Predict the structure of ABC-type quaternary amine transporter.
Amino acid sequence: MDAVTKRYPDGTTAVDRLTLEIPDGSITVLVGPSGCGKTTTLRMINRMVEPTEGRVLLDGRDIREAPVNALRRSMGYVIQHAGLFPHRTVVDNIATVPRLNGADKRAARRRALELMERVGLDAAFAKRYPYQLSGGQQQRVGVARALAADPPVLLMDEPFSAVDPIVRKGLQDELLRIQADLGKTVVFVTHDIDEAIKLGDMVAVLREGGRLAQYAPPAQLLSAPADEFVEDFLGVDRGIRHLSFFGTDTLELTTEPIVTEDATAEQFGAAAVPETPYVLVTDAAGRPRGWADAAVRASGPLDGPDGELLPYGHAFTVGRDSLRAALDSAVLSPTGWAVAVDEEGRAVGVVAQESIAAAIRGAHRAGVLR
Ligand SMILES: Nc1ncnc2c1ncn2[C@@H]1O[C@H](COP(=O)(O)OP(=O)(O)O)[C@@H](O)[C@H]1O
Ligand SMILES: [Mg+2]
């Protein structure tokens, strides 16, 4: 987008000299408060809205040079509430696009069923009508329909805003999974900064009046907000959220204070470390059960299978989970120690809050966290 401005006939400046280079094959998120020009910007990409000034270029060519129908065929479009045809079944909703592109009925149907699988919809839904689906399922049909013509570009306008947080998380994860397979150029609009940070390879923060406040990868947005507006918009816990971009593979884990539940009193005594009075008790398979007071256990057997185990909160998976998850795990643990597990859920070590804090200080020294 090259210095694009949109003024509506009533004088509203919805978008003000917006210049934005959207990289292909990745997800670019436009985020900002309601009324800041996100939808207008998105619609100028497929010419549902024409700019007052400036140019929109696709692969270096002004989009006004190509016929508008060809342009729109190269761009899938997903909106809030999915915008499905109410009188057509799920399979027919999706098959509409391949049919328009000249596919015969059977091929279009086959393609539709393929896409249902891709977006995580059971084939049993094929014959249903939109009103017979939940909001989340309708949204999946909307995504399938947008993908039906296999367009290189996908425009998504608050597609997940109307569903509850759990369904939304599922849809976001599904989009990331599909994107990892298909590598579309996605332009995604949302007012939810958490959604922007989760989904975006690049995030454009817009402010009232359709002006660009900052354009950056999410980690950079969190570490170096351009101004007070962006900082406010990111919220008070941006430091903590920034930690979700740091891995846990360099954390110093210790296995010393870990014992299995059938350990003897002597073994409990031997497992204790000076830094904490607690040891982590696991089951025979190595899965964490809870924390025990090493001195109490060392003084003799306890009644009941659970003894006096303190809950460990939740574990984090080394390598997969972020420093944020590790810190959260330590914060929730009454002992102040986080439990690290492998992909199979077996305890591979424990780590003190202090060690996680040291890792955070390390990130500061390296200049990657500000
Ligand atoms: N057709 C229109 N005519 C006049 N003003 C409009 C029209 N569409 C949107 N606007 C105004 O333009 C601004 C940006 O709108 P929009 O792009 O829908 O914002 P967002 O999607 O970020 O909520 C708002 O002030 C809105 O009221
Ligand atoms: Mg909008």
About this structure: Residues 38-39 surround magnesium ion (ligand 2) (CB under 6 Å). The chain has a mean pLDDT of 91.
